[in-house]
Amino acid sequence: MFGSPNVSGVTRIIYPMNIAVQSTIPAVEQELGQVLCACPFSYLGLHKATDNKGLVLRVWRPDADDITVIEQPSGKKLGNMQRFESGLFELHLPRRRKLFNYELSVTSEGGHTFRVYDPYQFGQYILREEHVDYDALHRHQGAHLITHALNAKRQVKGVLFRVYAPNARSVSLVGNFNNWDGRLHPMASADDGVWRLFVPGLTAGDLYKYEIHDKDGNKLPLKADPFGTYSEQWPGLSSIVHDDSRYQWKDSQWMKQRGELYDKPMSVYEVHAGSWRRKDGNIIMNYRELAKELVPYVKKMGFTHIELMPVSEHPLYESWGYQPVGMFAVTSRYGSPDDFKFFVDQCHKAGIGIILDWVPAHFPNDDHGLVKFDGSEVYEHPDPRRGWHPDWKTCIYDFGKPFVQDFLISSALYWLEEYHIDGLRVDAVASMLYLDYSRNDGEWEPNRNGGNENLEAIHFLKRFNQTVYERFPTAMTIAEESTSYPGVSRPLYDDGLGFGYKWNMGWMHDSLEYMKKEPVHRPYHHGQITFSTVYAFSENFVLSLSHDEVVYGKGTLLTRMPGDDWQKFANLRTYLSFMWTHPGKKLLFMGCEFGSWNEWNHHQSLDWHLVDDKDSPHSGVQKLVQTLNKLYKSEPSLHERDLCYKGFQWLVHDDYQQSVLAYVRFCNDGRPIVVINNLTPVVRHDYCVGVPAAGEYKLLLNSDDKSFGGSDVSAGRKFVSEAVEHHGQEQSLKLTLPPLATVMLKLK
């Protein structure tokens, strides 16, 4: 870092005597006037006079009529500066030999007078850093509040800006502090491609962007800070200086006890922050209001985690956050960074973990964003066959560039470090893994081995997972990966990608396809509902019923179910019960927990009126999900071996004619829970099922119970096994199978 912190946390900045100006004054004025100056510290600030008689001070203020120099900390006026026609000011100080600090009393063209510290008195100390943590690049780039110690008694606070633009001709800082005038704050370049400038007097809340000229001197659209941590909404879209250290966390106990979840319950409620619930007049709730309403609801429903669809800053609300521009900025649509930290804090206080959707696969081509950042492809791949996504009309990162990998990994670590996030769900992993993803023949180029794998992206994903788990061992990474790519959630030493978990898209697709068929047709598709157990333990799976299943004309979970309204609700109840008793962690999108009729619409609230009537079938589904979560957490057999083949055993998988499924879930000590699913609307009396142990069984759940909105057909009053061999078991018992229902029995 530049300088070293003293005991009070103040950064002491040491700077050398600046060299004399080598260029002529007319050349300096021309470069500054055209905003093409790449080394302003060589011209501006204090320098040795060319005649070796003292010092000369140069200030570039084309917006000023008059400037007086005031020495600090003495307050002594050193004189008025001479103004050249271009806007360059000079003051010759023949008796001065040593550098000193000063303020400028500036009188603008309109007659307004104000005092500022000249940024160019603070020397070229800002040009290089000795030790850069490239995995945490956010600590070195972007806008950082620092304090410069003038002496033991006087300090100057301001903001140190750094931005990577390796092919730019010039970069200037513009903002509300200089009337967005690119002439006033040219930044200094260095051979590492980073442009830097410390601006005294700036504080949290100041708006800024970068004015960049490409290598040919062409002015580009103003760019937001790629490492900015707070952003303005449309139409300004500016970055905002923010003090990350201001918030005082209260979740130390949660962070201390947070641990791996492989043998623990993990039930995730997926949420879109802008449409979960809205206030009167369809007003979007902010982070603090969500903390007040969403957190108690999730706790009441028994979910262990909230997964937020992307809250990284994104210009297009309709993208749901999946086209982010600010990879380090929480969207200001719902409040400030501190407001979001409060939301996370309240989640942790309630014992609820937070997972964020994170999008490293692509980014939009908005002018103020990353695209052609310095006139060249800094972030995106230059070849459109690899740098442009035809489906989403977005740019694809160039994963072969070290800086791009550093940028993305730094983003991941920033969310985990700064916002205490418990997990990152990585979006669209399949699109990263394959060069021919969504491309026809001739639209992609094979890798160096002749294959279709994106070797650079694979290397990046492995490095990402390795870095996350090294630095945050109790956090988790989750892949949304829709192909059969091997070892997504296997460790790196086993040639895996290193993710903690993978969404089970196969289970989702097959089970939904099965459930939407009329029961009379289900016997002919029995394999769709049983096939998932063939590969259930090949990855650390999360069973996901996400937002993608309730949009784009697909209908909702409820409307996809066949039959009349009674059958639709009964089908949904048994489907959710099947999901909660199937091996794997659980994820359910908001609104699915009470059986919404309408597809999700990001412009409006969920249909909460459906559960106003506590006796409605929607309230029944909601109560069922609450009960399933309670059982999932309280019964070790339903979660301890979620990811292990020893936790599951088929009892009945071939009764396709009656569409009945029966299986056992085991915990670590072998205690069984028997699950029987009747996937037809027919009541089946005296159904005999083998059980793994002798004794009396207790009814844990009947999804046809009246309290869930069912027909209240009883499965029986007492469930005692008999020494009658059935389904490969020495013991069996008989019970009534309610229609379109799931029954769960536990050995007493």
From TrEMBL:
Pathway: Glycan biosynthesis; glycogen biosynthesis
InterPro entries assigned: A-amylase/branching_C, Branching_enzy, GH, GH13_cat_dom, GlgB, GlgB_N, GlgB_N_E_set_prok, Glyco_hydro_13_N
Gene Ontology molecular function, alphabetical: 1,4-alpha-glucan branching enzyme activity
Protein's UniProt keywords contain Transferase: yes
EC numbers: 2.4.1.18
Pfam families: Alpha-amylase, Alpha-amylase_C, CBM_48, GlgB_N
Domain Glycosyl hydrolase family 13 catalytic stretches: 270-632
UniProt keyword Glycosyltransferase, yes or no: yes
SMART domains: Aamy
Active-site residues, record numbering mapped to chain: D427 (nucleophile), E480 (proton donor)
Catalytic activity: Transfers a segment of a (1->4)-alpha-D-glucan chain to a primary hydroxy group in a similar glucan chain
Keyword annotations: Carbohydrate metabolism, Glycogen biosynthesis, Glycogen metabolism, Glycosyltransferase, Transferase
Oligomer status and interactors: Monomer.
Family: Belongs to the glycosyl hydrolase 13 family. GlgB subfamily.
Job of this protein: Catalyzes the formation of the alpha-1,6-glucosidic linkages in glycogen by scission of a 1,4-alpha-linked oligosaccharide from growing alpha-1,4-glucan chains and the subsequent attachment of the oligosaccharide to the alpha-1,6 position.
Protein name as annotated: 1,4-alpha-glucan branching enzyme GlgB
Species: Endozoicomonas lisbonensis
